[in-house]
Amino acid sequence: MTIVDTGSDEIRRIEAAAAPSRFARGWHCLGLIREFADGEPHAIEAFGTKLVVFAGADGSLNVLDAYCRHMGGDLSAGQVKGDQIACPFHDWRWGGDGRCKQIPYARRVPPLARTRAWPTLEQDGMLFVWNDPEGKPPPAEVTIPRIEGAGTGEWTDWHWYSTVISSNCREIVDNVVDMAHFFYIHGSLPTFFKNVFEGHTATQYFEGAARADLPGPEGKPPLLGTLSVAAYHGPSFMIDDLTYQYADGDLNTVLLNCHYPIDSNSFVLQYGIMVRKSTGVSEEEAMATAVSLGDWVKLGFEQDVQIWKNKATVDNPLLCEEDGPVYQLRRWYQQFYIDVADIAPEMVNRFEFEIDTTRPTQSWNEEVRRNVERAAAR
After folding, report:
1. What pTM was computed for the model?
2. Residues 309, 166: contact at Cβ < 8 Å?
3. What is the 3-state secondary structure (H, E, C) of 233-275?
4. How does strand 26-32 pair with strand 93-95?
5. CA-closest candidate to residue 254, choices 322, 369, 345, 155
6. Cβ distance 56 to 39 under 8 Å?
7. Tens of pLDDT along 105-150?
8. 8: which of 34, 145, 305, 316 lies 20 to 30 Å off by Cα?
9. Confidence label for 277 from pLDDT (cuts 50, 70 and 90)
10. Which of 200, 260, 197, 251 shows the shortest CA–CA distance to 228?
C-alpha cells in the first residue's frame, strides 16, 4: 500500500452563502429610450417581479408594476390609451403616477386604486428606474452623471447589446478590481492598474498594451494599447472613458456596462458603445467603427459570460498580491444592500489601491513572445 502524505495543513474550503434576496438600492438602466418610445407597452422582468414600461401621449416614459391591482391582469399585454395603460382584463386605466384614472364601466374610481409607480430618469438616450427596498426617493447626490457628447453631432449614437446571465450581479462587479483577467479573458496586457472607492463610486484606472499574439478590432490598423477610466456610479451602472491607441492616432469611445437583476440568481447585462467622430468621416463610417469596436468588445463579454456560467460563487476567495482589493470592493458594494442607516464609514470612505504590475508584465510579455514564435514556426 502506498500512503501519500498530504501534510498537516488544513485544506482551503470554499464558502458561499445564499444570494441576497434583497435587490440593490440605486439607479438601474432598463435600456435605450428609443426601444420603449413606440407607443406600445413593454414587459420587463426585474427586481423579482414584472414591470410595464410605456410612453404617454407627451412622450415621457412611465414604469409601473405590471400586474393590475384590480384582478391581476398583465398591463404589459394591454394597450396605451392617451397617457394611460389599459388593462386587457377589464380596461382599468392606469396613469404614470400609479393612480387609476378611469374605469369605463364604473361610476367612480375607488380611492385606494393605486399601484407602484417606479421613479424614472431619462438621460443620454437611456431609461433608468430607481429601486430602494426602504421606499425612499432617490437623493440628488447619487444621480447618474451626464455623459459628455451623448446626443451631440460629435459622437455616434449608441450601439447596444443585451444578454441574460444566470448568476448574481456581484460576479460582474468583481471585475472592477480583477487586473489579471484582462490578459486571460480580454486579450490586453495591463501595464497600470489602480482602484479608488469613495462614496457610491468605484473607479478603475487601467492602461494596457495590445497583445502581439492576438488580433485587434476588424478593419482597423494594429492596436497599440488602451487607456481606460471606468467608474461604477452606484451598484449597476458603469461609464468607461476608453481610448484605443493606434499608430495613426487615438480613437475616443465611451463604453457602458450596466445591469439590472431579474431575480437573486439572474440578471440582464447590457453594454453599449459610442465613438467620437473623426474630422471628415461620415455618419455611416463613424457608426461602422462603433459597430466594429462593439462587436470586438462583445467577444470579451461573451468570454466573461462563459466564465460566469461555469464558475462557483466564492465568498472567501484565496488571493495573491496581484489580485487587487477584492474584499474592499465587496465591502463597498455591500452598502447598496442594507438600510442607509446601517452603512458603515469603511464602506464609503475613500480607499485607493495600485497594483504593482512589474511581475505580471514580465511574465505575460514572455508568454506573448513564445506564442508569437510558435505561430511563426508553423
Report:
1. 0.93
2. yes
3. ECCCEEEEEEEEEECCEEEEEEEEEEEEEEECCEEEEEEEEEE
4. unpaired
5. 155
6. no
7. 999 999 999 999 999 999 999 999 999 999 999 999 999 999 998 9
8. 316
9. confident
10. 251
Q: Residue 328 belongs to what H/E stretch? A: helix 326-334
Q: Residues 134, 140, 141, 142: is their CA dihedral positive or negative?
A: positive
Task: Report the sign of the C-alpha dihedral through residues 328, 329, 330, 331, in that order.
Answer: positive
**Phi, psi of 182, deg, nearest 5:** -65, -30
Q: How many CB atoms lie within 10 A of CB 326?
A: 15
- Using left for φ > 0, alpha for ψ between -120 and 50, and beta otherwise, residue 64 falls in beta
Instruction: Tell me if 233 sits within 8 A of 147, measured CB to CB.
Output: no
How confident is the model at residue 5, as a pLDDT?
Answer: 52
Q: What is the pLDDT of residues 208-250, one digit of tens each?
A: 999 988 887 776 778 899 999 999 999 999 999 999 998 888 8
The H or E element spanning position 376 is helix 358-377
At 91, is the pLDDT very low, low, confident or very high (cuts 50, 70, 90)?
very high
Question: Cell for 364?
Answer: 505575460
* CB 173 within 8 Å of CB 231: no
Question: Which of 352-365 are b and which e, b meaning 16 or more Cβ less than 10 Å from the residue's Cβ?
Answer: eeebebeebbeebe
Supply the pLDDT for residue 308.
87
**Cα 82 to Cα 23: distance, rounded to the nearest angstrom:** 33
- 348's grid cell: 464609503
Q: Do 126 and 228 touch, CB atoms closer than 8 A?
A: no
**What single-letter DSSP state applies at residue 74?**
B
User: Residues in the chain, how many?
Assistant: 378
Contacts 24+ apart (CB under 8 A), 235-240: 235/24, 235/25, 235/26, 235/169, 235/173, 235/333, 235/336, 236/24, 236/26, 236/27, 236/28, 236/29, 236/169, 236/260, 237/26, 237/27, 237/28, 237/29, 237/128, 237/144, 238/176, 239/145, 239/147
In this prediction, residue 1 carries a pLDDT of 46
- The string over 111-148, giving b where at least 16 C-beta atoms fall within 10 Å of a residue's C-beta and e elsewhere, is eebebebbebbebbbbbbbbbbeeeeebeeebebeebe
Cell of 298: 462583445
